[in-house]
Design brief:
By secondary structure, this protein is an alpha/beta fold. It folds into four domains: 114 residues, no CATH class; 233 residues, Serine Threonine Protein Phosphatase 5, Tetratricopeptide repeat (Alpha Horseshoe), CATH 1.25.40; 131 residues, 3-Layer(aba) Sandwich (Rossmann fold); 126 residues, no CATH class. It contains 33 helices and nine strands. The strands form two sheets. The chain has a seven-stranded mixed β-sheet, with helices on both faces. Strands 1-2 form a two-stranded antiparallel sheet. Helix 10 packs antiparallel against helix 11. It starts with a helix and ends with a helix. It binds S-adenosylmethionine. S-adenosylmethionine (SAM) binds next to helix 26 and strand 4.
């Protein structure tokens, strides 16, 4: 007695557990009645596959089929992978065949000749866990849409362990769906999915963001009832919850508890100070400045951070003389003020009609070569991009050195476009490219072709997100068509953060998820889900490699849409799709805002699953040389200006000859 479903599953999941231990855990599940329905079996199959006990997983699988039960999609996938890993290719093929067979599966798995049919598109539509969780971030999602997303997560077998629930809760936090977060928390308990301190921390945060600070407090009590001790993040989340609701005194109470329990740190202290400052409690803020380094956690000192918050509090409450005194004291204590600190003081003086003092501060800023546009500095200090994948918001200022043009674009959008109106954001980006500086986006003719190529319910994967322009074009089009999802990979973290900010502003964060990293690494994780529409727009000279890696995820109706095939050029990709037997369509058009540069967009369709081949062993030397040249000029173009037109004049005849030879 005493051992619950979660404990047995834990044993099954453990890679180091022996086969005997795993078999008796499965026995334990059966004895306790946890193997009665689809969900119980499927969780056990997923767990034993993760733990590399393919034989246990297969046994459970056979048992399910005998009883006329159909495993969940993730059980199928996990089992197939476990069989493949265990060198059981024939078994893996049988599992695949059973998945392709009509539901519910019959006792006898379908013959292997049905294999080609067993692609994901013949079974139920499978969205990746990430894509479904992303929907929970939509702030104005209807209850029906939210419950559809959670139902898809459940039936897709994505809700089998702690981490998936926690991810969903985190997304609920960002979508302000505190009620859904609480109900998922309850569901975890009912289904005996293990809860940990992180699960509760996220739930506390979700209530806080949903303006339900009292429920946050109630959760702290639940934690002690279920015997999960809070950690420093719990108290931070709780005091942030209070802070968001203007309850600064309550926030300080949590700070005190955290300090008494020795789990407070500098971040906790700053959250407390900000709670006071933003609620207008300037005296309390200044008191905290005094106690910094004295009665505070060890890692706190009277530094720029504390002074900055104090200056902000005094500015907000109109105390300009205090601001001047603070600046003076910073000088004495040799704490260097930054642009934001100066700007707070200058703004306070202006508000107090003391323009002499304000001007003096501004000349000091000028001497230090800081931006002297006070409003702009303050505005940028309050702008940050905030999304579930990072623990705390990323301030725009931190992104500026890495992506100055893109940060300016983001600010442009915030000033000119309408929040939540994706069409206006798309248009403002085009205007920026027209009026300020060129952007490497799929505008004009390319945009039209992209829109015309999408189909309802397409699960789009994009390689090369940049600032999210094409992702938004697709999300908007998919909305018009009635549904679908976009997952986009971006290797440059600064671009990806800007993109997330832009997507959030446009109100499409529920349909688009940004994955930071190399496209091929994301493919390797298997987390991109099934792909109906693959958009290649990252680096032409590696399209063929990344396409090959993604091929096993392509659905039967999959289309590949490749931009920049002629300019700057993707010769090895052309060769690849030709040799592999793709159906190829070439669209001749112009590069965005470059009427002097021709380009090709290639739309192609992979051969049926059964006919797909390995990577060709050799490619013609001429093409490889061409590809190396494209790489070289592309790298050079990042440092200096290059003559693209001349380069094209040389390249074009080779591409057109290739095209003619194939009658395309
Ligand atoms: C032409 S831009 C994409 C434009 C975007 N599709 C649009 O139209 O709005 C190419 C982007 O791909 C990114 N990139 C380059 N190599 C990559 C890789 N291996 N994986 C993911 N992203 C990559 C670059 O950082 C750059 O932001």
């Amino acid at each position: 007695g005493g051992t619950g479903q979660a404990d047995f599953l834990k044993v099954l999941r453990r890679k180091r557990a022996s086969l005997e231990e795993a078999t008796s855990a499965a026995e334990g599940l059966r004895a306790a009645g946890h193997l009665s329905g689809v969900r119980g079996y499927s969780s056990a199959i997923v767990a034993s596959s993760r733990g590399r006990k393919w034989s246990v997983a297969v046994e459970l699988f056979e048992e399910m089929l005998e009883r006329g039960l159909r495993p969940t999609a993730s059980a199928f996938t996990a089992l197939r992978e476990a069989c493949e890993e265990g060198g059981q290719a024939a078994l893996a093929a049988r599992v695949l065949a059973a998945q392709g067979a009509e539901a519910p599966a019959s006792a006898k798995p379908a013959p292997a000749s049905k294999r080609a049919q067993a692609s994901p598109s013949t079974s139920q539509v499978l969205y990746s866990k990430g894509a479904l969780c992303t929907r929970l971030r939509e702030k104005d999602a209807s209850p029906e849409r939210l419950s559809e997303a959670t139902e898809l997560l459940r039936s897709g077998g994505h809700f089998e362990e702690t981490l998936s629930y926690t991810t969903a809760l985190r997304n609920c936090e960002h979508g302000h769906h505190w009620d859904l977060a609480l109900s998922l928390l309850g569901e975890m308990r009912e289904r005996t999915v293990e809860q940990d301190v992180v699960t509760y921390n996220v739930a506390v945060a979700a209530c806080g963001r949903g303006q339900q600070w009292e429920r946050s407090l109630a959760l702290l009590e639940t934690m002690s009832a279920v015997d999960i001790p809070p950690d420093f993040e719990t108290y931070q989340a709780a005091s942030l919850a209070c802070s968001r609701n203007g309850e600064w005194e309550q926030a300080l109470t949590f700070l005190e508890i955290a300090q008494a329990m020795r789990v407070a740190n500098a971040e906790s202290w700053h959250i407390g100070m900000m709670a006071c400052a933003s609620a207008g409690a300037w005296e309390a803020t200044l008191e905290m400045l005094e106690s910094a380094g004295v009665e505070s956690p060890k890692d706190v000192s009277r530094d720029l951070m504390c002074y900055g918050v104090a200056l902000y509090a005094c500015m907000e409450s109109g105390r300009w003389p205090l601001c001047l005194a603070l600046l003076e004291r910073m000088r004495r204590e040799e704490v260097d003020a930054d642009a934001v600190a100066f700007a707070c003081a200058a703004q306070a003086c202006r508000d107090g009609r003391n323009s002499d003092a304000a001007n003096e501060i501004i000349s000091e800023m000028r001497l230090k070569k800081m931006n002297t546009n006070v409003a702009e500095v303050l505005n940028e200090a309050t702008l940050s991009v905030d999304f579930p994948e990072v623990r705390s918001p990323v301030p725009l200022g931190a992104l500026r050195p890495m992506a100055p043009k893109e940060v300016n674009l983001y600010k442009w959008i915030r000033q000119r476009a309408t929040p939540g109106d994706v069409a206006s954001v798309i248009q403002v980006i085009e205007e920026f490219a027209e009026e300020r500086s060129w952007l490497k986006i799929q505008g004009e003719q390319k945009k039209e072709l992209l829109e015309a190529s999408l189909r309802a319910e397409d699960r789009v994967v994009e390689f090369g997100c940049y600032v999210g322009y094409s992702s938004m074009v697709m999300a908007k089009k998919l909305r018009e068509l009635g549904g679908g999802s976009v997952t986009t990979c971006e290797v440059d973290a600064a671009n990806a953060y800007v993109a997330r900010g832009v997507l959030q502003f446009a109100g499409v964060e529920g349909e688009v998820q940004v994955r930071v990293g190399c496209a091929c690494d994301w493919v390797a994780t298997g987390q991109l889900g099934t792909i109906d529409f693959l958009l290649l727009d990252h680096r032409g000279t590696i399209y063929h490699d990344d396409l090959h890696a993604a091929e096993t995820s392509l659905s039967e109706k999959a289309l590949v849409f490749a931009d920049n095939v002629l300019y700057p050029g993707a010769p090895l990709f052309l060769n690849y799709i030709d040799v592999q037997g793709y159906k190829i369509e070439i669209h001749e058009l112009k590069e965005f805002k470059r009427p002097d540069l021709d380009d090709w967009v290639v739309i192609c369709r992979p051969p049926p699953l059964a006919e797909r081949r390995e990577m060709p062993e050799s490619t013609p030397a001429e093409l490889r040389r061409l590809s190396a040249e494209v790489d070289a000029i592309s790298w050079r173009s990042q440092e200096q200006s290059v003559d693209w037109v001349a380069f094209q004049t040389r390249l074009k005849p080779i591409f057109y000859q290739w095209k003619e030879e194939r009658g395309l």
